[in-house]
Specification:
The complex is a heterodimer. Chain A is of the alpha+beta class. In chain A, about 15% of the residues lie in helices and about 10% in strands. A two-stranded antiparallel ribbon of chain A has the order 1-2. Helix content of chain B is about 40%, strand content about 15%. Chain B has a 9-stranded mixed beta sheet with strand order 11-10-9-8-7-6-12-13-14. A 3-stranded antiparallel beta sheet of chain B has the order 2-3-4, with helices on both faces. In chain B, a hairpin with a 5-residue loop joins strand 3 (about 15-20) and strand 4. Chain B starts with a strand and ends with a helix. Classes of the chains: A alpha+beta, B alpha/beta. At the A-B interface, strand 1 and helix 2 of A face strand 3, strand 4, helix 1, helix 2 and strand 9 of B. Strand 1 of chain A pairs antiparallel with strand 4 of chain B.
């Protein structure tokens, strides 16, 4: 998955919110800002000096916008919010 | 700062390690074996388990809300967020311009009422809306056009939309609208009218290929041989590419096998893909009002539906539909509040001008909060019961680790103490969440890693 030792790899699949470059850097994720939800997929390791981003999916925001989708679900009203 | 693991963490074991999902923040983290096992051991140990977490992992756990300060009361934090979001909910009117419908579907949950909205009621609704917006600080206004079949009264949609857009423009707030329609009354003139009316999304129902759809959703009093399916397909031809379309497929024992043929048909028309904005989704037919009580006899079990749903999502993903980013497909995420009915700014308006909180009670005048001539808020017993409802008042829900994802489910089911629906809701979140997360991880990884 990365060049790091496999046993301590961390892959972010969904960030809890939009995070700044500074916050991402603190997690060892160096690169483009993420938009929260599923718009950023990145991997790093827990050991120092072995951080590596696998994918910076910042282009996903454009894809979402083109598709007219919000990054988070909403209630669509009518009968669409009934589980 | 002393840390503890969040009470809302979900652990998902995978072949090569595992994943963590936090139900309060929505964060999803995949870990290789060593860090995953450390979190699993710390979770098992309980209160003092955090000492087992490797130091390098802590910043990630904190960033995702998987670890929280020992002095944070997560339930109280969640409750405060729920109350705040509920109180400041988006301004959403669900309006039925008519209760009439040109189809007679056997499982329809709308009762037997008829009638269309008069000009007086429209004028009252416009002035009630104007007063409501003037009193609050609303960031936006949205309208869902519902029915009956709302497009049988396009004249009312056009007239009210023009007024709403004028009001919103005057206040500098965005306006948007969707139509929930059976899709049989759409031509180019309708499309132009909808665009002019600020509509950018439609929910259209299609229950299977022609023979299946026509048997389930026949034209009311129609001549033999008339096909509602053909009308919907013609309508979709006008809509695709111009609106976001949520294609609802109501599923029960009678049509569960036929949904794949429908999917092939949509694919053959090139309506599915990354940019077409057509999202076919399955909805389980259940008897949630008296009007559709007979649906109980044909409903499929939650588990059968769930298995169908996972296959459905996987197939859509393979066709390029961006399912992971679309809330319709049930991937777990934190809810802001459980339903527009308990939000302070959500109202359902009937053709007669009654104001309700819940669409499922719209054909029962006893449940009305007010009539639009008196404004949108009634401050009567009916409104009070919706505003007082909170899943945090239920001892079981309050302590439940799944509360951020579920928020008690349908408030009406909770208020009516409908045991079967409540039990199914709990089962859905407690036992099926892991499957959705596994699929989410699989599809996300396949798409980007």
């Amino acid at each position: 998955m990365t060049g790091s030792r496999e046993e301590d790899v961390v892959v972010w699949l969904r960030l809890p919110r939009r995070m700044s470059l500074k916050e991402l850097k603190e997690l060892g994720l160096d690169g483009a800002a993420c938009f929260g939800a599923d718009t950023c997929i990145a991997a790093t390791s827990t050991g120092s000096g072995r951080a590596a981003i696998v994918v910076r999916a910042d282009e996903l925001k454009t894809v979402l916008e083109k598709a007219g989708l919000p990054p988070k679900a909403e209630c669509y009203g009518g009968d669409t919010c009934i589980v | 700062m002393p840390w503890q693991l969040s009470r809302y963490n979900g652990l998902i074991a995978l072949e090569d390690g595992g994943a963590l999902y936090n139900r309060r923040t929505g964060a999803l983290l995949r870990l290789s074996s060593a860090p995953y096992n450390a979190v699993a051991r710390a979770t098992e140990r309980g209160e003092d388990g955090f000492s087992l977490i490797p130091g390098g992992l802590t910043p990630h756990l904190v960033a995702g809300g998987f670890a929280v300060s020992t002095d944070l009361d997560e339930v109280a934090d969640l409750e405060a967020r729920y109350e705040s979001r509920r109180r400041d909910s988006a301004f959403l009117l669900t309006i039925s311009p008519t209760f009439r419908c040109n189809l007679s579907c056997g499982y329809c949950f709308v009762g037997s009422r008829a009638g269309s909205m008069s000009e007086d009621t429209q004028a009252n609704l416009i002035s009630a809306t104007e007063r409501f917006i003037a009193r609050g600080s609303h960031a936006s206004m949205s309208v869902d056009w519902f029915g009956g079949e709302p497009l049988l009264n396009l004249r009312v949609i056009r007239s009210l939309s023009a007024a709403f857009m004028r009001i919103c423009s005057g206040r500098g707030i965005p306006y948007s609208a969707q139509v929930i329609t059976n899709g049989t009354r759409i031509d180019e003139a309708t499309v132009s009218a909808l665009i002019e009316a600020g509509v950018d999304r439609l929910q259209v129902t299609l229950d299977g290929p022609a023979s299946v759809h026509d048997a389930r959703r026949p034209i009311a009093n129609g001549k033999p041989g008339r096909s509602s399916f053909r009308a919907v397909l013609d309508g979709l031809g006008h809509l695709v590419g111009r609106f976001l379309i949520r294609l609802r497929i109501n599923v029960d024992v009678r049509n569960q096998a036929a949904v794949w043929e429908l999917l092939d048909l949509l694919h053959a028309r090139r309506w599915l893909g990354p940019t077409t904005r057509v999202f076919p989704y399955l909805a389980r037919v259940t008897p949630f009002t008296e009007a559709c009580g007979a649906a109980a006899d044909v409903a499929i079990s939650l588990e059968t539906f769930h298995a169908l749903q996972l296959r459905w999502i996987t197939r859509l993903h393979s066709l390029g539909v961006p399912v992971v980013a679309q809330g319709l497909y049930g991937f777990p995420e934190p809810k802001l509040y459980c339903c527009g009915a308990v939000g302070s700014n959500g109202f359902v308006i009937t053709p007669a001008g009654e104001v309700h909180k819940c669409g499922l009670t719209a054909d029962d005048s006893r449940e009305a909060l007010a009539v639009v001539g008196d404004g949108l808020c009634g401050a009567n017993a009916a409104e009070g019961s919706w505003m007082r409802y909170s899943p945090f008042r239920d001892a079981t829900c309050r302590e439940c680790a799944f509360l951020p994802s579920c928020l008690g489910g349908c408030p009406r089911n909770q208020m009516l103490d409908r045991q079967r629906e409540k039990e199914e809701n709990c089962r859905y979140y407690r036992y099926l969440e892991g499957d959705f997360l596994r699929l989410h991880i699989q599809l996300s990884s396949a798409a980007t890693l």
